[in-house]
Amino acid sequence: MVRSNRNITGIDGMSVPGRLRCRRVRFLSFSGNRGANTMNRRDFLQSTVVAASGISLFGTISGARSISAPILDRDSSSPTPSTQENGTMNEIVPMKIVIAADPFAVALKDALVAYLKDKGHEVTDVGSTATKEVAYFDCCPVACKMLQEKKVDRAILFCGTGMGMSVIANRFPGVVAACVESVFAAKMCRAINDANALCLGAMIWGEWMTKEAVDVFLQTQFTEGLDPLADFLKEAAATVERIRP
User: Fold this and answer.
1) Mean pLDDT computed over 62-82
2) Is 24 helix (H, G, I), strand (E, B) or coil?
3) Most-buried pick from 23, 45, 150, 169 (CB within 10 A)?
4) If you write DSSP's letter for every residue of 107-131 in order, what string do you get?
5) Beta carbons of 94 and 69 less than 8 angstroms apart
6) Hey, what domains does the chain have and what are their CATH numbers?
7) Which pLDDT band, with edges at 50, 70 and 90, does 49 fall under?
8) With a threshold of 0.85, does the pTM exceed it?
9) CB atoms within 10 A of CB 13
10) How far is 18 from 54, CA to CA, in rounded Å?
11) Four-point Cα dihedral 149, 151, 153, 155, nearest 10
């Protein structure tokens, strides 16, 4: 491997010194042919951001083929549903989903529950309702225990900003909670981090975008579109799960 000292420009426009660049990995071109060059992890992820954004927005309209990774084997005891690829979209069979919301997010949560039930998902609501207020630190543990016991496939957690829910959820071993503020982040927390809990803030999200974010969160597979980094991402997820104070 030849180490380069050439600076690169990050996604946020900042210059990244060459000496800080991650080690190089082989990559596959989007056409499926092995590239003759090498690309480090940071470079690859930067290009993936552009590619994935374009595919998610324009893939169906333009007829472009989606970039997807093989579905990974899961623990047979987990209720994770099967998926099948149809054209450019991943169709997913109904999931078991637990939803929890604090009083800030009841209206948004109710709209999502109705939406998910209409799509055939089995939804369990363990949070606040129009007639009952439940604090985020009371309903979040209930949802997380259901994930731990594999009674559900995913959790959707609402509070004012989503941050309180994520802080509590990530205290539970086996729960990977992502607090996101964009549809793209909702997709990538699955592809990169294998998140099983999505935390959203009612002060930030509207109903339409919430449905979009939840759809991609439910449909995206771990390492999807990131085939060259699949081994690293799986190793990283396992390492993170073993970290305990």
Assistant:
1) 38
2) strand
3) 169
4) HHHHHHHHHHHHTT-EEEE-S-BTT
5) no
6) 8-67 (no CATH), 83-219 (3.40.1400.10)
7) low
8) no
9) 6
10) 28
11) -80
Give pLDDT tens digits for 79-124: 444 343 443 445 657 999 999 999 999 999 999 999 999 999 999 9
Average pLDDT, stretch 5-12?
A: 46
> Any idea which residue has 């970039």 for tokens?
67
Residues 6+ apart with CB under 8 A from 143: 98, 99, 100, 126, 127, 152, 155, 157, 169, 197
Q: Among this protein's residues, is 159 annotated catalytic?
A: yes
**Closest by CA position to 167, among listed 190, 144, 192:** 144
Instruction: Supply 181's token pair.
Output: 């503020």
How far is CA 238 from each of CA 26, 76, 193, 242, rounded to the nearest angstrom?
Answer: 22, 18, 10, 6
Which position among 139, 140, 144, 159 bears the catalytic label?
159
